[in-house]
Fold this protein.
Amino acid sequence: MLYRLLSGRYVVIIRQKQNAFFLTTLLLLNWYAMHKSSPVINPVVVLRKEFDDWAVLFNPDTAEAVGINPVGVEVWEMLARHQDMDSILSFLRQTYSEVPETLASEIDLFVAKLAEHGFVGYEVDHRD
């Protein structure tokens, strides 16, 4: 699914419906990661905060839902404010104690998993 933003950029929302699309999805995610595109939330996805700062993301287009922990909620809310990954990582390192060395890869994996299921996409310059 492709959304055009008012900024003149496009947002690609990748959905994985069948195993046949798995390799294509991984290749596209890898291409977007190599081109330093920014993850953005799918505009139809709803965030519902629950108890203990956990939340549920619900995609009404696919009827998929996923629970996310408080760090995932922070990441989601920063993506909603159009923060880039460097800003998100910096914020998490300043906010939480005992942040693991693997934080960047863990957050990348979290965002990639959300992208696999259509909760986020990647903003790319339409001139590329």
Q: What stands out?
A: Residues 55 and 73 are 7 Å apart (CA to CA). The chain has one domain: 2-124.
